[in-house]
Request: fold
Amino acid sequence: MTDDRVDADALAEAVTLSLLDSGVVSEDDPWLTVRYVASLFGVGPAGIRALIRVAREIGRTPAQVIEDFAKAADAGDLPPGMLDLRIFEQDEVWVDRWRTVRQIRDLADAHLLGLIDDFLPRSAPGFHGGCVIAGLADIEMDPDEWLRGTRLYRALRSEAERRCLGG
Reply:
């Protein structure tokens, strides 16, 4: 029986060597390997930029981010930076871009408000479109109206109200 698991170090090394040999990247920017690996997983340009920005902000190295992609491949999960749209059909947890499951009641105030006031409303058209394609939403519904009606968004707003936050 063969081992089908992805070796993160081997993947990173093979991709880096291939890109260096082709002249596409230089050794001066290790994040280019992350960009390439993320694109292989279907993460779009905006998602890649956001993923790298957040990774840098929280101190993750390119090697750690590539390892996150390898772990996702091993487990058959979505890679970092991609949201499982079924999240909108429940009201208990939020799953961040690193695939960390957090109880809504345990989210920091700033994180909770950032989801309610910024990230989800700004991303509603894309999430709504994805949910329409997946058969999880009605195409006739306005994306903002759809978002406000999801179990997830209502739970986030309820939690913000419970804490007497502005959201």
In short: The first strand starts at residue 93 and ends at 95.
